[in-house]
Amino acid sequence: MDGRVCVVTGATAGIGKETALALAKMGATVVIVARDAAKSARTVEEIETTVPDAKLDVVLADFASLDAVRDAAAEIGKRYRAVHVLVNNAGVATKNRNVTADGYEQIFAVNHLASFLFTRELVPLLRAGAPSRIVNVASVAERNNPIDFADLQSEKNFGGFRTYGKSKLANVLFTYQLAARLAGTGITANCLHPGAVATDMLKKIPWLLYTLISPFLLTPEQGAMTQVYLASSLQVEGVTGGYYVKSKAARSSARSYDVSAQRRLWDASEAMVASHSSHGSLENIPSR
After folding, report:
1. Residue 280: what pLDDT?
2. What is the DSSP string of 169-215?
3. 243 in catalytic set
4. N or C terminus of the chain: which is more exposed, having fewer CB within 10 Å?
5. Directed axis angle between helix 66-79 and helix 114-128, to 10°?
6. Do residues 148 and 157 lie in contact, with contact meaning Cβ atoms separated by under 8 Å?
């Protein structure tokens, strides 16, 4: 990975941090995208303790703000001529329904819309770095949570786990449609389920349930293995439009292969982020 620029969002904790560490060990230049300056500085220090010659950079952005997402992509464009790997790892889970400053339900906004816009804004840099890779962190939670296109913002039917699952289905639908639209460009797009990982996000579930399942949870290092594999392995060079579990190709939910739903989500997402995109960089990737 020496000489390759890898952008990792949500890289100050959990599997995001472990992904950044693993890629730094391989010699990549790792751009840590996170919202907290202090946590970012600590993450850099921790990685440099393990990898003294690590090539690290930090771009601050709160993914609950689409303007901040756009600005973060623009900042990366100022610093680098090309991006070779984008790992969309940032995510949030909440018990209560919250609304972002942009007026969107927070889980959907951070877990899907932010990644959608960030990816679209970085497409020119990914084209410049081709062959390049986009890795979207989804979850097995996508299987039992259909998307209601009449209620994308969960105004009528909000539930923390249910809404999180819908956002993860959105990640998978987005990945498949993105892969189709980027066919022939040298940019691949794949997604994954990292497994049940002992992270701060999972601790938001009821404490008794967490206590019962905690002995069976993966460590963040174990949970990061599949996204590191998709970001770096020669075995998936040129492979696109896949869903992976334990670094192996797997099947996602039947509904995630619905091309009409993929296109419908894409069009809805385009409409929601359009006013936040930078002039000229939101490319008109055709429908496939």
Report:
1. 46
2. HHHHHHHHHHHHHTTTTTEEEEEEE--SB--TTGGGS-HHHHHHHGG
3. no
4. C
5. 20
6. yes
The pairing of beta strand 85-88 with beta strand 132-137 = parallel
Task: Fill in the DSSP letter of residue 17.
Answer: H
Query: What three-state secondary structure class fits 166?
Result: helix
Domain of residue 252, residue span = 5-276
Q: Domain with 262 in it: what CATH number?
A: 3.40.50.720
Query: Is residue 282 a part of any domain in this protein?
Result: no
Give residue 6's identity as a one-letter amino acid code: C
Contacts of 237 (CB under 8 A, 6+ apart): 131
> Does residue 285 belong to any structural domain of this protein?
no
Give the integer Cα–Cα distance in Å for 204 and 202: 5
How many CB atoms are located within 10 Å of the residue 15 CB? Answer: 30
CB 243 within 8 A of CB 235: no
What amino acid occupies position 246?
Answer: K
User: What does the pLDDT read at residue 199?
Assistant: 53
Element (H, E) at 132: strand 132-137
d(CA 20, CA 222): 13
C-alpha dihedral (208, 210, 215, 220), degrees to nearest 10: -160
Q: What six digits make up the tokens of 232? A: 């770096």
Checking if the pLDDT of 154 tops 80, the result is yes
Residue 200 lies in a domain: yes
pLDDT in tens, 228-268: 999 999 999 999 999 999 999 999 999 999 999 999 999 99
Residue 40 within a domain: yes
Task: State yes or no: pLDDT of 20 exceeds 90.
Answer: yes
Domain total in the chain: 1
Per annotation, catalytic residue among 80, 164, 176, 229:
164
